[in-house]
Every structure is written in C-alpha cells, then in structure tokens.
Fold:
Amino acid sequence: MSNYSAVIGLEIHAQLLTDTKIFCGCSTRFGAPPNTNVCPVCLGMPGALPVLNRRAVEFAIRAAHALNCEVQALSIFARKNYFYPDLPKGYQISQYERPIALRGAVEYESGGVTRRVGITRAHLEEDAGKSLHEGFPDSDRRTYLDFNRSGVPLLEIVTEPDLRSAADAGEFFSRLRAILVAVGVNDGNMEEGSLRCDANVSVRPAGSAAFGTKAEVKNLNSFRHVQKALEYEIERQTAILEEGGRVVQETRLWDASAGRTVSMRSKEEAHDYRYFPEPDLPPLEVGAELVDAIRATLPELPDARRRRFVAQYAIPDYDAAILTQSRPLGDYFETAAAAAGNAKAASNWIMGELTRKMNELDVGVESVAIRPEALAGLIRLVDSGTITGPIAKDVFEKMYASGRSAETIVAEEGLAAMNDDAALETAVREALAAHETAVAQYRAGKQQTFGFLVGQVMKATRGKANPATVNALLKKILDS
Ligand SMILES: [Zn+2]
Structure:
C-alpha cells in the first residue's frame, strides 16, 4: 500500500448540440470536408463581429440544471489571449470571472456508496480549429489546419478536486457523460472529440491535508485513457516524492500508444492569458423565466432512472446501468418490458441479440428495425411455451429481416413448439433407430453420445421440441 494518496479534478469540454456555431451561422456538422463550414467570423477575419447563438445558451442552462449548478443571471464573455496556428484571431472567446454556472454537484451511487463530486463552474466558450499532424504524404514536414471546428460551442465543466483515484475519475467521467447525453446537450461521442477531458492530478503523503503540486494531463479522449493516464501519472508523481524529489507544475500530454504522459509545457497561469471582457459581445443576461422554463423540461437523470429500474423492474443493477446509458435505450426497454410483462427477458434480449444486431448494422436504438412492442410479442411467445428458445432466436432474425411480427412468422412457417408428446416420442424413437451405433456407445458408457442424440432429435424437429423434454424423454427410453 502506497504512503501517498491522489487528488484529482477534471476539466471537461463538452460540445453543445447546436446546429450552428456559437458566434456565427456556420454548420457544426462533424466530418464535412476541411474548411467548408467556415465564414469570416469563425476564421477570425478583421472586422467580423460575433453574434451569440441563443440555442448554445439554452443548452448551457440545461446542463447547469442537470449538474445542480446555480445559473448566473449575468455572465460575461472574455478574451483568452494566446497564439496557436489553429486560433487565427489570437484569442479565444470564453468566460472567465463571470461564468454562466457556478457551485454544482453530481451525486451518484457506486458500489452501494453515495458519491458526491462538486462542480466548481461551467462556462461557455468557442472551440479552436484543428491542427492535422498526420495523414498527409508530407505530414513529416507540414501541419495542416481545418477550421470547421473553429467556433463550435463548448461548455467547459470544472470539478472540485474531489476524486481520489484513477478509477473514481473514470467512473465520474462516464456518469457525467451519461447526464449530458440524457439531457440532450451533448452526443457523448468521444471519438469525434465532442467530449474531451483534461485532469489535474497531484499526490500527497497519506493523511496530509495540504495538496501536492499538480500536473495537468491533457488529451484524455476515452474512459480508458482517463483511467490509464491517471494511473500512470499517480505512479510517476509518487515515485518522484518517494525519492525525495519535487513534482513540477506543468502540462503533460497522454501518449496512448506509449502508455505514458510526457511533458508538454510548463503550466501557464491564468494571468498569462491576459483575459479581458470581450468588447464585441454585451454581458449575457439570463432571465429567471427562461431558467425555470428550461428546468421544467429536464428528463429523469440517469442515476435516478437506474435506481428506479432496479426497484421497479427487479432487474440487476448491472442491467440497469447498461439500459440507462442513453435515454432512447431506456425508453425502448420500458416499452418492451411493459408490453411483454417480463422485464428481465426484455433486458436480456436488448442487451444480447438486439445490441449485437445494432452493432453489426451500426444503427441506434431509435432506428432499430424491431420496435419494442414487436420484441415484446416475441417474448410472450417464449413465455407462453408457444416457441422454444432456439426457435425464438431464429424468429428474431426473421423479424429483423422482414419486419413481420413474431406471431405471423411462427404461424406462417409452422414454428410453434411441439407440444404433442406422442409426436415427440415418435421423433425420439426414430432418431434412436437411425443412430444405433451412438445408442450402443451410450449404453456402453460413452456419456458424450447423449448430447449427440439430443442434437439429432432437435434437428429432426427443426428446433421445435423443448430441449428439456427431449432430454427427459431420451433418458427414459435409453435407460429403460
Ligand atoms: Zn462561421
């Protein structure tokens, strides 16, 4: 056990789901050809003036509510001055002393314990362009710039240093993502960079109240990276302290392929940015009416929903965690569970076959071909004994391919289970007669042939026999 403990705070950049950028009318669509979603404003041309996107403000307020923050009646945009090739204006419009949201907290249950992570603030800002260091024949000599991302609205969420381990940080980040996705302000897509995380991490002797010197780790674009980078960084800082050295305050970059953090630059201080109020934008005033109206439209948040699923549907917490990862998935489950009258079966089908199908075809649950009512129809056929489990999977595939209901497929293709005992016994006796060698082997003590014989009966009945009944019947006949 280490004599040092870690203190971690996160800064999360969440792209707000507006159609257009924060200060101009350019599209925010990801994946457009480079430098096609641009105009004089987001390219930082002299004289171009920003106009605030109202939708971005509404989304920020929505997120602020979900994070239990106090929405500020008045906030101020500020220029954060720094040079970077993908920042043609030479400054980024952000919020500094007066952000739109302050003093929130996220509470959630984890392993039976209620966790609370404070939110210091959340502020609106514009994203910078993107430097492309890879993917071109001359990438070893040149960096290319794409300004499509320049001016995309971001909400930067800063937590209190309330996290104590890499695993804590990873879990919190995933909870936060679920919240932002649930309230519809962010798409949660970390691969496309619409949710990014930086971490401030320090270590201190166990039991010490004072914080150690922190390093900022950038570029943590997946839960796995958050966890791996923090594990590495905590170990690195602990090793320095154990050898009597001092941790340097700096910004470090997570190199995922090398599995380590590397020094990027000495840590800048806020005053290095020469913040000053943005002269081209008036102070942002938000009326109480708008704040209340937005609060009234908030959906049930993921943690509350997860707990309700466990209580109401008696499904394991593991299932509930997966089913509440997105609102449409949770809605799908609730509809299917209610219509089927069997929540656990609905959960199993959704987490199993349906998810497999969605991954295979790369479709979301909103556009999946089998609607929840139709899935419920299939579940009812299994529960009533009309079809067997193996046949159900087959019917599922057919439903997906044809859009027909389970009932129709079973009726039209004669897939109903064999409930006729006499017919089943005939099938079993025929299978035994056709495989005399296997029967002899079984009787001579070769147990494995039993499974083979069950398989033969299932095949002969095209999966329509109940496997348990076949087992029992075979045993009875063979052992007699
Ligand atoms: Zn623009």
